[in-house]
Write a structure and sequence with these properties.
heterotrimer; A alpha/beta; B alpha/beta; C mainly alpha; A: alpha/beta; 10 strands; C: mainly alpha; 72% helix
């Protein structure tokens, strides 16, 4: 069971509340898509989920443990590619090194990760030369390196061409089948409709709706959500 | 910070290995004459003691010895040397050698004067002929200041009197370039290659004598000083052998220093060949 | 006339050549090719002092400079202020300060380090520390900005972040070290005070040049100056070739 809870969470900056108050108690089923207009607070929400930001008030917890202290239990993929000035292999190794894995543990795990991402032939190339799609696949296996239960992704396919997007989505699907849960921010409605088991809809700095994807897409509760789903 | 001090200690231990040497604080003019490079290897061959020479301006040389950073001091300014001993920094002084100062100036135009003292009086009175002063508290500079004081009532000043704060070579260069007068030590003058219009205008007076003194730094004040080896050095420098070597030192065929062994002033000048 | 180099009695001034540049170049060539032992020991000491000083300054300044780039910590502002003021000091002042420390009359006199190569290394390390610090911070800052979210997302420890940044910014850091080395090998003010320019013990290229100049052996001094420049060029070329060996991963995308 992977439980995510927000207790009276508020995030303020410059005197304004950018996100909150949020009260949430959910058990992740498989792929939870985070949706909302640009500027609504999706990225903020994800960073708070991952414990990258400290709430101004309240808590964010995973299975009753503070998100701030448990970052190494999860993987994270950024919207903009962040790539170390190293080889593909060394990039993927990063979370394992940070977590203190031994050299041999890392090397073993790298073989399967590279294979998963179909990047084995390019393992020793500089990560900088990878195409957009390859980088995101690399980012995904990097996020999976330490075998987390949850991977959080911030619009990972928004800058990819359709071919690369498909490859990435296939990879997500196969990983999700192994039991890894995803929090996936996307503004691609068809993508969400295809993959999401649950949806969290963020609007105007609050969690406006959350529930099963089926329910959400069939009959969104709020007017905002309805307009959003229709593509306005 | 801890790291830094460990590093520092490593450096320190690498260096404090005992070696048979003394540190001699002396002046640039003595060093630049080449005397030490010629003389000291003989001393090392005879005694096995290496002499490390720090050659700086007279003021700095004395200060280094006052800080206890040298085992012996060799300079050429008697009042300073006497004060050094009187203040307890020096244990004993030895007469080692002497040469002289000379007044150099342009062949033409000339300032008329009939004695050493008259030069200073006339120079100040006419205020037309440039005079280059070292201005750096060196032995030469201090001698120059004493001469002004001895022969005139007021200190020199004005456009004609130029204090440059530099070494002897620089002063001679400037004198040559501006047809100026200056006080120089004979050693630097002999090896100076840019004489141009300059020539020796006056020399030989007792006031122009330039005696060198070797002083042992006082071990009572600085227990770490290598007193024994410094004394060996002083004894060697004043021995027949050391004195003979000093007198035999030649630059371009000319003798630079006259060995000294407690002769009287007039005897000194007579005994040493004029150049 | 007398010079430091036994095999090199400069001609008496009266015989100065009409073409000083030619004389300088021929002196340079003669110095290099006749394998004058004094010259090579002076060159060797210069390299030893300045390279060691660069190493010591680097060990202190590179991690500190990287830490400065990484953000706030207690004492950060003071370090930056202190370092900037140190950079404004002329070498002779740094030398004087170290002299006062190491003199028998000073607090560290009992170490007996004055007038030794160790004192010179110390003075030069202090002299170039702020340069390497500032250039390291500058080199690392953009990388730190780029890496920060990623390193934060994997909960990397402070030490891990420091190592990652230093390793990935190593080429720019090497350039910082070269700048430090250049300043060290070219300075004369600090080493002459703490070293004493003792013949055969603490005489380096720059102090020899100063000495020969003061003796009026200008062509010899200039020839030594050319050799000094050649030395610096060789070190630069060597470091740059090291750099290009491992530069494969330094390409930045986008």
């Amino acid at each position: 069971m992977i439980d995510l809870s927000f207790k009276n969470m508020r995030f303020n900056a410059d005197g304004k509340t950018l996100l909150g108050p949020v009260n949430l108690d959910i058990s992740l089923k498989s792929i939870t898509c985070i949706m909302g207009y640009n500027g609504a607070g999706k990225s903020l929400f994800l960073e708070l989920c991952h414990g990258m930001l400290e709430p101004t008030k309240g808590h964010v917890q995973w299975n009753r443990k503070s998100a701030l202290k448990t970052r190494q239990d999860r993987g994270f993929i950024f919207q903009h590619r962040i790539v170390l000035r190293r080889s593909v292999r060394q990039n993927i190794a990063l979370p394992m090194q940070a977590a203190g894995w031994s050299r041999s543990q890392i090397d073993t795990r790298l073989i399967e990760l590279l294979d998963m991402a179909r990047l084995t032939p390019k393992a020793d190339e500089p990560a900088a030369v990878l195409s957009g799609g390859e980088v995101q696949r690399m980012a995904l296996v990097r996020a999976l390196a330490t075998r987390p239960d949850v991977v959080i992704m911030d619009e990972p396919t928004s800058s990819l061409d359709p071919g690369a997007t498909t490859k990435f989505e296939n990879l997500i699907e196969s990983v999700a089948k192994t039991g890894v849960k995803f929090l996936w921010a996307t503004h691609n409605i068809t993508q969400a409709q295809r993959f999401a088991s649950d949806v969290i809809f963020i609007n105007d700095g609050t969690v406006a709706e959350h529930g099963s994807a089926e329910d959400f897409f069939a009959a969104p509760a709020s007017q905002m959500a309805q307009q959003y789903v229709k593509g306005h | 910070m801890k790291f830094l001090s460990i590093l520092f200690l490593m450096l320190a231990t690498a260096v404090t290995a005992q070696e048979n040497s003394i540190t001699l604080s002396s002046t640039t003019s003595t060093q630049n004459s080449g005397l030490y490079d010629y003389l000291l290897p003989h001393f090392t061959a005879d005694t096995g003691i290496t002499v490390k020479v720090i050659a700086v301006g007279t003021g700095q040389a004395i200060r280094i010895a006052q800080n206890g950073d040298a085992d012996a001091l060799l300079v050429h300014h008697r009042p300073s040397e006497d004060a050094f001993i009187a203040d307890g920094y020096g244990l004993q002084r030895f007469d080692v050698m002497y040469n002289d100062f000379i007044l150099v100036g342009p062949k033409t135009p000339t300032l008329g004067f009939n004695s050493l003292g008259d030069f200073f009086i006339q120079a100040q009175k006419t205020a037309r002929f440039p005079f280059i002063s070292r201005g750096d508290d060196s032995g030469t500079h201090k001698k120059e200041q004493e001469l002004w004081k001895q022969f005139t009532d007021t200190p020199p000043s004005g456009d004609w009197y130029r204090e440059i704060g530099s070494g002897m070579g620089a002063a001679l260069n400037m004198a040559a370039a501006t047809d100026a007068y200056t006080l120089s030590d004979r050693g630097t003058w002999l090896s100076f290659g840019n004489k141009r219009n300059l020539t020796i205008k006056w020399a030989g007076d007792a006031e122009l004598l330039n005696p060198y003194g070797l002083i042992l730094v006082n071990p009572a004040k600085f227990p770490h000083v290598k007193a024994e080896q410094a004394r060996i050095f002083a004894n060697w420098m004043t021995s027949e052998r050391g004195q003979a070597l000093i007198g035999a030192f030649r630059v371009d065929g000319k003798q630079l220093f006259c060995p000294d062994s407690e002769k009287s002033q007039s005897e000194r000048i007579a005994a040493c060949p004029a150049n | 006339m007398h010079s430091t180099f036994r095999n090199f009695t400069p001609r008496a001034r009266a015989q100065h050549s009409e073409r000083p540049i030619l004389e300088i170049l021929s002196t340079t060539l003669r110095l290099i090719t006749t394998g004058d032992a004094t010259l090579w020991s002076i060159v060797g000491l210069s390299l030893r002092v300045s390279l060691t000083a660069t190493l010591i300054a680097a060990i202190c300044a590179v991690p500190l400079g990287t830490a400065l780039a990484m953000g706030r910590f207690w004492g950060r502002r003071s370090i930056i202020a202190l370092s900037s003021s140190l950079m404004a000091l002329p070498p002779v002042v740094v030398g004087l300060a170290i002299y006062l420390l190491l003199s028998r009359a000073g607090p560290l006199g009992d170490l007996g380090l004055l007038f030794t190569p160790s004192a010179m290394i110390t003075a030069q390390s202090v002299l170039i520390f702020p340069i390497i610090l500032a250039l390291t911070t500058e080199a690392v800052s953009p990388l730190e900005q780029a890496y920060r979210p990623l390193l934060h997302s994997v909960d990397a420890s402070r030490g891990f972040r420091l190592r990652t940044l230093i390793i990935d910014a190593r080429f720019a850091i090497f350039t910082a070290l070269l700048a430090g080395f250049g300043r060290a090998i070219a300075e004369v003010g600090a080493v002459i005070i703490v070293g004493g320019n003792i013949n055969g013990v603490t005489r380096v290229m720059t102090t020899t040049i100063a000495l020969e100049t003061s003796k009026g052996n200008l062509e010899l001094a200039m020839a030594l100056g050319i050799i000094l420049i050649l030395l610096a060029v060789i070190v630069n070329v060597f470091i740059h070739s090291l750099k290009s060996m491992g530069a494969k991963y330094q390409r930045v995308s986008r």
